[in-house]
Give the backbone structure.
Amino acid sequence: MCGIFGLARVDGPLTAADTQRVRQGLRLLEHRGPDGEGVAARDGVCLGHRRLSIIDLAGGAQPMASRDQAGSIAYNGEVYNFHALRDELERAGRRFSTRSDTEVVLNAVLAWGPDALSRLRGMFAFAAVDSERRILLLARDRLGIKPLYYARTAEGLLWSSELEPLYRAAGPFDLDLEALDDYLQWQYVPAPRTIYRGIRCLPPAHHLTLDLQSGAVVERRYWDLRFREDRALTAEEWGARLDAKIREAVQGQLVSDVPFGAFLSGGIDSSLVVGYMAEIMDRPVQTFSIGFHESDASELPYAGAVARANRTDHHSEIVEPDSLGLLPRLALHYGQPFADSSAIPTYYVARMARRHVKMVLSGDGGDEGFAGYHSYETVHRRLQAAAGRGVRGRIRALAARFYRRACVREETVERAYGLHCLTAKHFGPEERRQLLVPALRGIVRDRHPERRALMDLAGAPIISRLQHLDLMTYLPFDVLTKVDIASMANSLEVRVPLLDHELVELAATMPCELKLRPLLRDGQPAYEQKHALRQLARRRYPADVVDRPKMGFGLPIGQWMRGALRSGVEARLLRSTRLSLLVERSQVAALWERHLAGQDSTPLLWNLLVLDAWMESHPEACNRVGAGARPAARAGVT
């Protein structure tokens, strides 16, 4: 895993200042690649790379040129099918000088152009130059595991693995007020926006091409996930098929020339990944867990049980209530406000793991791919209540709409979307209008058509539409952003076998009742989330591990705010001159008082604390807010 930064000019030759700017960006990415740095300038493109060496330690230095000098690449990621691709490329006459997947990706791009992306199985973000065709290709993996940002400035096109290097090397940039509105609602900024006017995030499953002669820039999607239920198999046959595909994904991601291990939360997803690793590997798996003194928030006992069942070399730590001290560092690493408080324990577990290994496998992706979130059950229950029938009648009436392909009306989709938004939002539209200072209230959007459109899957049941929405938004913009930044801040590579795209595509064809399974418990409707994964887990682990309520990976930060963190929270929230540029102090104070009185407002307060920390380290971005900063103009991309 690595960090990339680069610059391309179309208005003339590269200058010494351009190369210096790339080196400046790379200095801010050193944590992503402490093992080496490289810069190469050619054909109007300056490629920069920071390396975290995992495969081919001796021969994988970057930027890398092809053996025939027809192109070059700066690449971040791992492609797990590179051996098969290399064999195919060699049969076509291409020659190689290293054992690295980097050289395979470069030669695939030179041989097949952007069509190469559909052949790659793994996680990646890269910049590749085809010198003969005079094309620069920026690309990001299908599900957004690896990040990529870019900006068009007077100097040309610049790109980076993280936001902060672009802000420092090519900025500063003004605050994008539409992105601020998104952040206050969702706790993250969805791509292609970023918090800055003038910087875009390349969305997952997209590539961008720059014609180095004309300067034309084109951004396109190259992959879509299709939900089509396959009911030809029995539940037992589906279980066997799923078992084989997960095993294949895990085994394919164990390729490494350095020590590795696994994150282990004690939940079903990470426990399954560790179980497969233990069966495949010929040595104990190193596992890493984080917990809290508050026993009702800690999963350490369950992680310990899974570790003992698999005889792992287990490591665990307790997180102390000092989260506010980490906020300034996280504000720089994320480069924009990011209010998922589980970024804190993720950072700490990555830091602990890095003391022992360079790479870990994680269970991320299981909830989105196999319907593991409470929100799906919440939407189903409320749709049932709206049906206004008896328990059994409601189950029968909703089955066709929620689980089957038929009878999904537009109004049902619209209601399901609205209910899902209620489970996902932080500040709603009216709350944001009250919160923001009067001059900014006009930025509030009541609807997000681009987000709502993700539920428009012709013929698909409601649950599939909800999964698609989460897979295209919450997964890449929250979960994977959190994992990438928290891990790479500690120079640790994280691989996610449950997000192998072939496995995700397989899960999208499973009958919905194998994911969220309806049942009656004590005469009342109930649901078993991730049913198919639970069935696999039951073969390995006791019921108290598999069938316990879902806990997630959040901090007990609401308790900490009322206790050890109280004075620090009040100093940041109630006395911040920065926040008052954007939000009404009286509204913040009222929110805090309600929290102290027992009305849990933890997500909203954390949202504002993170916003304040970001403003503190990026004051230039907010300088023009009071002078009429406007929402970002659309970038010139077709």
About this structure: Residues 235-252 form the longest helix (18 residues).
